[in-house]
Write a structure and sequence with these properties.
Number of domains: 2
Helix content: over 70%
Strand content: under 5%
Radius of gyration: 18 Å
Order of helices and strands: HHHHHHHHHHHHHH
CATH topology of the largest domain: Leucine-rich Repeat Variant
Structural class: mainly alpha
Number of strands: 0
Length: about 210
């Protein structure tokens, strides 16, 4: 695509902005004129990974407050969670996580791919947002919760300690939507309430409160 004169030309990497401000400005423009997101979606495929990363970040910024504007671009974002460049993967996964509650069926269609990012990606941030995505999906209802809980339990066993608080937090939604699973996740809350890491303790206590 030709960048000059497009919204892509206003992105941080194209304006020499070393901060996120230019991308935030573009996100604001996209909220006001949603059709601009078509250009951002094209930018996800750009050979310049800086542009691709900026575009993924714009989708995240928009999804934080206007997820419904981003859901039409779920296919492009889900494709980008496999990008060779780490930043593109994590921003795309973050955007997907923020819209996952509104596209549960689509997420289920690629559940194996989300799990692959969660367990095998070399990026901690990609793994974090994969867990967030599954947690948001699990909070959609009891059927979703039953599907996702085994994956989160597997995460507690296989992922490093730094992911514990994220995994416990993801279980909170399960406790809220599934009375039949609340007792099961409550046990994990009790187990980790005495963990030496304060962030894990905090997440565990929140889980206990939600599951009681």
């Amino acid at each position: 695509m030709e960048e000059r004169g497009t919204v892509v030309s206003m992105l941080s990497s194209q304006t020499g902005d070393s901060t996120q401000q230019s991308n935030e400005n573009v996100a604001l423009m996209c909220k006001e004129t949603p059709t601009l997101l078509n250009q951002i979606a094209e930018g996800l495929l750009h050979t310049d990974v800086k542009i691709a990363g900026d575009c993924a970040e714009v989708f995240t910024k928009v999804a934080e407050t206007h997820p419904h504007l981003v859901t039409p671009y779920a296919k492009q974002l889900l494709s980008s969670i496999h990008h060779k460049h780490t930043r593109v993967r994590w921003e795309s996964m973050h955007a997907v996580a923020l819209i996952s509650f509104s596209i549960p069926n689509r997420i289920f269609d690629v559940l194996e791919e989300i799990q692959e990012r969660m367990f095998l990606d070399q990026s901690t941030i990609v793994k974090d947002y994969s867990i967030l995505c599954l947690g948001n999906l699990a909070s959609c209802g009891e059927a979703e919760a039953k599907m996702i809980l085994p994956i989160l339990k597997k995460g507690l066993l296989q992922l490093e300690e730094k992911f514990l608080s994220k995994l416990l937090t993801a279980m909170i939604g399960i406790a809220k939507v599934s009375p039949s699973l609340a007792a099961e996740v409550l046990v994990y809350g009790y187990d980790y309430e005495v963990h030496p890491k304060s962030s894990v303790q905090k997440a565990a206590k929140k889980l206990v409160k939600a599951a009681k």
